[in-house]
Amino acid sequence: MLAVHFDKPGGPENLYLKEVAKPSPGEGEVLLKVVASALNRADLLQRQGGYAPPPGASSILGLEASGRVAELGPGCQGHWKIGDSAMALLPGGGQAQYVTIPEGLLIPIPEGLTLTQAAAIPEAWLTAFQLLYLLGNVQAGDTVLIHAGASGVGTAAIQLARLAGAIPLVTAGSLPKLQMAEKLGAAAGFNYKEEDFCEATLRFTKGAGVNLILDCIGGSYWEKNVNCLALDGRWLLYGLMGGDNVSGPLLSKLLFKRGSLITSLLRSRDKKYKEMLVKAFTEQILPHFSTEGPQRLLPVLDRVYPMTEIQKAHEHMESNKNLGKIVLELPQ
């Protein structure tokens, strides 16, 4: 099969398609013939040599995929049959023509969505669902500040916050990104390049601050985050795009707010946790992708590239211009 490959860490120019051995499904696993996969920041970090896959995971890039079941391994429970369409959360291996997955991590394709659209769901939406619903315990009426509001996770989090009856606010670095976030349901958006998002958030909340912060930035935002956190607020850290250094009285400021700093990664979670997460998402959230009306959820696709243009896809993500997900289509 063909798979995205790089021989040494570095820039996008190191990526190419290589013929590699097709995997075989093990006990309780399914072989998926991949139609599409989506790009994530983790793919860029892994290509640069900064984010190794978890032990036992494929070294091929790709944390999500959609396609059709091609083969069932021994011990499968009979929930899936050959030819079924599905999407999947992966620890790696999605940017190849075939990938093996534990059957409990397969998710049905919502009615009305294409396989290309579905490829943009698993990693971003499960991350946003985990942060808001399982860890953040989002409640109706909560105000939620979502950094990188036009990213895959950001566009999912806006819609999931609205679904919970919460009030999403976003930060982003351009007017088109803010306009798209507001179209998806953000109550307000702040351009972090032009204004202090902490001051803007406190103005919007009349000084009360936000109940939840979804933060993929980290170090460079710590002081503004804690300053605009409400009493008893939850600050959910899931990335370090702004570095990992904190210099200053973070702990005393957080203690004064009685705030919770909760950290989370999804890729390194074990199979049991991921199966629980997939089951909860499939039951609670998936039906809303197919219902008509204002509560309908939609994956936001920025661009679709053929897998042969993998270098261009990485360059586009690195330019930070994407509004939503970048999807890759596999040669069939």
Going by helix content, strand content and strand pairing, the class is: alpha/beta
Measured between the Cα atoms of the first and last residue, the distance is 10 Å
Q: Uncertain regions: pLDDT < 50 for 5+ in a row?
A: none
What order do the SSEs take from the amino end to the carboxyl end, as H and E? EEEHEEEEHHEHEHEHEHEHEHEHE
The pLDDT mean sits at: 93
Helical content band: 25-40%
Enumerate how many helices there are, as a single number.
10
- Computed over alpha carbons, the radius of gyration is 20 Å
Number of strands: 15
How is the biggest beta sheet arranged? 7 strands, mixed
Task: Explain what you see.
The protein has 332 residues and is an alpha/beta fold. It is built from ten helices and 15 strands. The protein has helices at 41-47, 115-118, 122-135, 152-163, 175-184, 197-204, 222-227, 250-256, 271-284, 310-318, and strands at 2-6, 15-19, 29-38, 64-72, 85-89, 98-102, 106-108, 143-146, 167-172, 188-191, 210-215, 229-237, 260-263, 301-306, 325-329. The strands form three sheets. Strands 3, 4, 5, 6, 7, 14 and 15 form a seven-stranded mixed beta sheet that branches. A six-stranded parallel beta sheet has the order 10-9-8-11-12-13, with helices on both faces. A two-stranded antiparallel ribbon has the order 1-2. β14, α10 and β15 (325-329) form a beta-alpha-beta unit. α3 packs across α4. It is globular, with a radius of gyration of 20 Å. It starts with a strand and ends with a strand. The relative contact order is 0.16. The model has no long low-confidence stretch (mean pLDDT 93).
